[in-house]
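Annual report, structural modelling task.

Input specification for the adenosine-5'-diphosphate complex:
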Amino acid sequence: MNVQQLDETYKILIASPEVAPFAKTGGLADVAGSLPKALTTMGNDVRVVMPKYRGITDYKTIGDFPVQVGSRKATAILREGVIRARLDNVESLVPVYFIDNYHYFDRDNMYMYFDEAERFAFFSKAILEMIKYLQWAPHIIHCNDWQTGPVPLLLREKYPHDPFYRGIASVFTIHNLKYQGNYPKDVLHLLGLGDEYFTPNSIEFYGSASFMKAGILYADVINTVSKTYAKEIQTPIYGQMMDGVLKARSQDVYGILNGLNYHEFNPETDARIYRNYGPEDHNEKKENKYALQREIGLPPGDAPLIGIVSRLVDQKGLDLVAEVIPEIVQRDIQFVVLGTGDPYYEELFRSFHKTYPNRVAVEIGFNVALAQRIYAGCDMFLMPSRFEPCGLGQLISMRYGTIPIVRSTGGLADTVVNYEPNKQAGNGFTFAEYSSDSLFDAIIRAINTYQDKRRWVALVENVMRHDFSWNRSAAEYMSIYGVARNRLESLSYPA
Ligand code: ADP
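The model returned the following structure:
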């Protein structure tokens, strides 16, 4: 990773409910696994903390400490693993702390349990207790999503009596505002907070206590994962009822686009794809396409192949896809869909496969290796999202020379510029209105361009040369860490 060294460096703790490669359900894990590497290679002392879910087995045990959760005296067992970061062939190790508690985290899945509030109240409190236990006071705790929302609140309201905590600033990144962690009032008790926090000026939110609101209100700086999404979430349409809260802190809301891990996602070295290739190896990319078609049971050949790798949920615009498929398959166009999620969509796509077996291939499940082969083997990648905080799929697909077709919203609007044949400008095909007609139109524009081989090859080469690596994003994170520290310094605590 070619990242500039900075004059001022920080001790940074990145707190996240999921971190790749240890546990992943979505893009947050990729960010929480990659950002620490980039920050470490810039010279910062970065450490990561996450829950120790059942699937995590590679660690050493450091010790344990008590964590009070309501009236329950729980024990956090502290384990440690590593993420390896590399710069110019020099390897550095990023410590990853796993917070273990058999009762809360030794379960089949990561999320969706009845006691979710209690599990992540425990996690949030354990993060703050852990740094004291380690006697390691970071300059910044960078929290991610609602599961860590209580950390900025507790840090600001409950811990300043201890000077150890007073110099720590907090940053709260929203990866998806839809998931807010809103629970009945008694979760205040789990966090050791009194009724005075159950007000509209604090974490009361339409009758619930909101973990997300705690993060937004009490962090020194709020961040989300693209500039457009940062603006969108301050409006009623995209604000998930939280727009007023965000607007009140508008001055402190930033939007930093996620980067992509260019070592992991590299078509020239990726061992998961059939043939490695660079921007000029058009035939090798084609070989990936033919091999993919064979693997997923579509007739091999030059028909345009459109891929989707996605959680199958409403957010991703799959209702529009379902509306256009019957029309699109009348032409010589193929689809491959890899995803898991809402049973309704799983069944819908299975039925498309049954009806059009030579046109639509469907794989229900979470399969990272197949995902890579789809990114490499397709001609186009489809993301018609209703909303998209950043989106990684379009970035990965561009890295593999697969042209994105996207709805212009959030991070998709910030990364995909509509291709204009006459100007030879743009890197994908976009549409604005959330309608199947607009999606259909964008697909047809993509297909028409695909038929013009000279133009298409130039577009693919151009897209593969884009730089969406972490270099720029990590530098922007450094600057908001600086803002958070300045803001903290402007607060004064009673002695
Ligand atoms: P979100 O975080 O909303 O799910 P993103 O586009 O930001 O969407 O990130 C999704 C990430 O998860 C990408 O790395 C994508 O390749 C991966 N992914 C999604 N679904 C699957 C799946 N079924 N199998 C493998 N990887 C998947």
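The chain has a mean pLDDT of 95.
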